[in-house]
Amino acid sequence: MHLDVLDLREFYYRSLLGRAAQKGVRDRLLQFWSPEDVKGQSIVGFGFAVPLLRPYLPTARRVTGLMPAQQGVMSWPAGEQNVAVLAEETMWPLETGSVDRLVLMHGLETSDRPKTLLDECWRVLGPGGRAVFIVPNRAGLWARRDGTPFGYGRPYSNSQLEAQLKAHDFIPGRHMSALFAPPSDKRFWLRSTTLWERFGKAAPWLAGGVLMVEVKKQMLAPRPPGLVDRARKPLRVLEGLVAPEVKPIGRETSESAAKPADTPGDLTGAGLQQKMRTSD
Length: 280
Known about the structure:
The protein is of the alpha/beta class. 29% of the residues lie in helices and 19% in strands. The chain has helices at residues 5-14, 16-32, 114-124, 158-166, 187-191, 193-202, 251-258, 270-279; strands at 42-47, 62-68, 84-87, 99-105, 125-136, 170-178, 210-217. The chain starts with a helix and ends with a helix. Mean pLDDT is 85; it is low at 261-265.
């Protein structure tokens, strides 16, 4: 179930709770990758990840915001040249191996075909490329409230997310949590957001609203054509048997084999003549 782009824009850019959530997740992403880390590289965001990509605009070689067709697209960034693109969920208009950094937010948990989506992520990443997947935490409060975008789709636990990423040849690395404050638009909770984020970093038992996992693309070694797999420990089930041998046919054996059979039922050769004498 994809959210509408207008609802996402309303939440992240026009509500105090959305702006606080944007800042909390973006600060965590900057701990993964600073703007200097992506200098001269191509960075792509899928879903509704554009609120997190603005710090990378001055240093990255190219910044692209892909938005699924079921969600809709909006112009971004405001007041500058548009870099947002409407794309099919599992067919991105990007060349294979052309992306250095990839960010997914509101993309994986709402996808109708998550396996195909992960295959597309793997395709566009270049060798050694990195990606950050941001999903709702099933143990957090944000996944239990429909008033935020994180209350829609399939929430994940950290082990579930890593297992799904490993199944698609991604190597999980660092992981973090964000949005430790309750998803409330009351002034008290909004003013204490920064304090909650600091407290969440020092308290690993406290469940954040979202999970963030950084992965690296795993390149499989090419295999030569043909059958190369051999049994390391073949079964020795016939060790006690003598191997069959081919022996030449002797003179006596060949003569007996060439001589016609003289049996009562034989009606050719010597058998036929003996039968005729007996009848006379």
